[in-house]
Amino acid sequence: MSRIDNKVKIMHKAIVCEDCVIQGDVTISSGCVVHPSAQIIAESGPIVIGENCIIEEYAKIHNRIQPESPDKPHILTIGPNNIFEVGSVIEASKIGEKNIFECKSFVSSDVEVSNGCVICAGCHLSGGQHLVENTVIFGKHCQQREALDRISGSHMLQLDFLRKILPNYHHLRKPKQ
User: How does residue 5 score in pLDDT terms, banded at 50, 70 and 90?
Assistant: First the structure.
């Protein structure tokens, strides 16, 4: 891997543990929580993470999409209110809002995730696809269906809890804009 210049921007009210790995041009918006041992690697272009996202232990968000031209890098935009659970690996080209990436899920760089989608535990997605709103990927064969109900902002209680607890047990990175 070539050398990556770090330009990390952590917005006010974001909780980012010191023990995580952040490389490249990364913006972490207000209200986000990044657990220890999480990885956010902006190898091919910037990563912009929307407000109130949770990135749990050993989750990895990686922008490795090669840009069309050197002057115009691919920006991995992640919408607000997403949850990246333990051990998920995300290389998607774009991520909307209110999605859940469960434990050990994998999304390759040729997948675009819209809004309200759930990638269930252990599911692997690849092969140039666009997930329409409220898609659920589940089972050992990664079947797809549409969710009957939309995902609500139910992770706000979890965010509030993490904002209170994490500073008691981990060193935090200071917000930088």
Answer: low
Token reading at 165: 């607890």
C-alpha to C-alpha distance for 43 and 40, rounded to whole angstroms: 9
- DSSP 3-state of 157: helix
Rounded to whole angstroms, the Cα distance separating 57 from 35 reads: 5
Full-model pTM: 0.92
Residue 17: closest CA among 167, 130, 153: 167
* Nearest-angstrom CA–CA distance, 167 and 102: 24
AA identity, residue 53: C
pLDDT at 176 over 80: no
d(CA 118, CA 149): 12
**Which of 14, 71, 18, 20 has the alpha carbon at shortest distance from 48?**
14
CB 98 within 8 A of CB 153: yes
Q: How many CB atoms lie within 10 A of CB 103?
A: 15
Distance between CA atoms of residues 100 and 83, nearest Å = 5
DSSP E strand stretches across 4-101: 7-10, 15-16, 21-23, 25-28, 33-34, 39-42, 47-49, 54-55, 60-63, 76-78, 83-84, 89-90, 94-95, 100-101
Q: What angle do CA 77, 82, 88 make, to 5 degrees?
A: 90
